[in-house]
Amino acid sequence: MDLKEIMAVNLRRKRHDLEMTQEELAEHAGLSAHYVGAIERGDVSASVTVLGQIADALGIEPGDLLRRAGRATKS
């Protein structure tokens, strides 16, 4: 799985955890809902700027969107 796919899975999971629609996320992140959908499908790669905007809108660290499932973080 490449980083684009990892981000897509993590983004979708976190957005669902927050019970947020793509439209709500897009509004909070200053993006279009179409673009958010394309990122979630893995159709496009988000720039680091967009990664930051999405992470801020979700209230998480940008790296959380790129972390493979099951990987522990260092303390």
Automatic annotation (TrEMBL):
The residues covered by the HTH cro/C1-type domain are 11-65
Q: Does the keyword Transmembrane helix apply?
A: no
Pfam families per the UniProt record, alphabetical = HTH_3
Keyword rRNA processing found: no
Domain of life, per lineage: Bacteria
What InterPro entries does the record tag this protein with? Answer: Cro/C1-type_HTH, Lambda_DNA-bd_dom_sf, TransReg_Diox_bact_type
Keywords, comma-separated and alphabetical:
DNA-binding
What protein am I looking at?
A: Helix-turn-helix transcriptional regulator
